[in-house]
Amino acid sequence: MKASRRLERIPPYAFAALEQKISAKRKAGVDVISLGIGDPDRPTPPLIVEAMQEAVSEPETHRYPSNRGREDFRGAVRDFYERRFDVTLDPNSEIIPAIGAKEAIFNLNLAFLDPGDYALAADPGYPVYTGGPWLAGGEPVLMALDPELGFTPDLGAIEEDVARRAKLMFLNYPNNPTGAIVPDGFFERVIDFARAYDIVVVHDNAYSEISYDGYRPPSFLATPGATDVGIEVFSLSKGYNMTGWRCAVVVGNAEALEIYWRLKTNVDSGMFEAVQLAAVAALSPDADAEVASMNELYRRRRDLVCDALREIGVDVHPPHGTIYVWAPVPAGFASSVQYCEHVLEQAAVVISPGVIYGPAGEGWFRISLTTPDDRLLEAVKRLGSLA
Ligand SMILES: Cc1ncc(COP(=O)(O)O)c(C=O)c1O
């Protein structure tokens, strides 16, 4: 059997060799602790689960949902965006449910790219920013996130002919994998750039509800002019411990959303209505305390990890958002994969090599804070003994 040429174009997974080593170690009885995956370890808050339980017992939720979403779901998203981001959305034209941010990001490529079109993708970045364009028949063009620019791309360095062929731009703040928050003035520059080249900006807002030290991440749409050029994908996965629920929303430019909706009506049948009703509970002010307590938990873990890294001589800046610590590979290692293999060999701890998120991630590694406290403490102890 042969995979399609489109699928073959996706570069091989750089983590594969490391994964084989992890599985060999586990088979040999080694107690491997994974700090690799960004999947919250805590359960979904009870008020959301209870809303789901109630909703799922209502037969009206069992039928095909509309791809536009229920009115009460869209109303809850409108209220949340108003309350949380000071952004006013029209629920009839500026909100569409998505079956996870991953679905939305992938399908936006199918909706907007023709063969030969470019999608500008943050590097390092969430893998679908590159896999999506390839699978849609277009081409991703990497924009290196520059640590000197607060992990933003230098928009001025994008070549004129590339900018002209670009139809989409994928950005994400607070950022996976770097943990960076958006610097002042960056979204304004993105909007000017997108206007000049007629590019649809897709801001992937997967981490806005996870932040520390009093910082409150903004919506891209709160920047004047953003809705003229772009959309935002807001996911409930990380902030509400709902990765398995597949619950996100695409908001912003009405014309772009109409195109996305047309595509979606051809490929899926919308979000289970009981999940929409659970999302209504998640987005209500009643869930704020749950979110705040998760942030406190991650902040504690962040400090634990950063202290341990400093102890072994790693120059780490604690992030103000996301569930990730991003740090430079210590001197003496040829690559991020080599360093992560060393940590696995010596400490039986899995951390992610930065290069798996794109070439600009080389020289860095990522630690996820989604491991239960006792295991994280043990991992941190082992890291400390690496010195
Ligand atoms: C930046 C970013 N966007 C999107 C996603 C996927 O979100 P969802 O679970 O809503 O598909 C992730 C998951 O790791 C992510 O890190």
How confident overall, as mean pLDDT?
96
Strand count, sense and barrel status of the largest sheet are: 7 strands, mixed
Order of helices and strands: HHEHHEHEHEHEHEHEEHHHEHEEEH
Bound ligands = pyridoxal-5'-phosphate
Number of strands: 12
How much helicity do the residues have? 40-55%
**Order of strands across the main sheet:** 2-8-7-6-5-3-4
Cα distance spanning the termini: 49 Å
Apparent shape:
globular
Give a verbal description of the structure.
- The protein has 387 residues and is of the alpha/beta class.
- It is built from 14 helices and twelve strands.
- It has helices at 5-8, 16-27, 46-56, 71-85, 101-112, 128-135, 160-165, 186-197, 226-229, 254-267, 273-282, 288-311, 336-347, 373-384, and strands spanning 33-34, 95-98, 118-123, 139-144, 166-171, 200-205, 230-235, 248-252, 324-328, 349-350, 352-353, 364-368.
- A seven-stranded mixed β-sheet has the order 2-8-7-6-5-3-4, sandwiched between helices. A three-stranded antiparallel β-sheet has the order 9-12-11, covered by helices on one side. A two-stranded parallel ribbon has the order 1-10.
- Helix 9 (226-229) links the parallel strand 6 (200-205) and strand 7 (230-235).
- The protein is globular, with a radius of gyration of 21 Å.
- The termini are far apart.
- Pyridoxal-5'-phosphate (PLP) is lined by residues 38, 100-102, 126, 172, 176, 204, 206, 235, 237, 243, 248.
Write a concise keyword list for the protein shown above.
single chain; 387 residues; three-stranded antiparallel beta sheet; 14 helices; binds pyridoxal-5'-phosphate
